User: What shape does this take?
Amino acid sequence: MPSRDVTITVLFNNNTRDPKLRAAHGMSCLIEGLGKTILFDTGGDGVILLDNMKVLGKDPKAVDVVALSHAHWDHSGGLFAFLHRARPGIDAFIPRAVSALFREHAALLGAKVTVVDGPVEIVQGLHSTGEMGGEHLPVDRREQALVFKGEAGAVVLTGCAHPDVVDIVRRANEIVPGAIDVVLGGFHLKDAETDVVERVIGGLKELGVRRMGPSHCTGEKHTEVFRRTWGDGLVGFDAGTTFSFRMAA
Ligand SMILES: [Fe+2]
Ligand SMILES: [Fe+2]
Assistant: This one.
């Protein structure tokens, strides 16, 4: 069986590794090589998102599907400009907890909106965990994460991980069983107490996560704890970073 390469390129993040890119609070990344091209989150500003895509040589018109992790503006705020300026007819997977008004607005701008409740295969090989956090979180913090199976194990992408990154990875691992290669994104720990961070790291270690890419709302201080724990397994996720994964066809 031939194998194929999947790449993830960080388009928008609080920090950038490339001075030509604009850094801003938020997150967006592009997943290519799964047959379709997927935009995961849009950052908080569609103009910055489109500018960064241009610098990185990524054509917005090549995007087939957008998936939003959750309602917060630093993840969803770029969507309307992206639809309006670049890609109106796109499929959009938006969690139920994002307001109906927001979804209607996206549809008015041409998006073909799918409301996400439970786990769903967004494109072949790429799964949503489904909306999580409904049992205990306010609507704006209910969130979906994405997962696919690379040759070295599951690759998990989070927005802010408000429903708890350990719970998200556990759910992702139910959908894509076996080894967990890497977890990338925001882990929402910037204001967390040390004991919470220790619990999270313990939970991720127990799940056997090989590599971690904390960014966005993880917080610098706690990122250092991840760095000390994972050592070489700590990977950057700043804007301009690209990851390649081999995926069995
Ligand atoms: Fe965020
Ligand atoms: Fe958030």
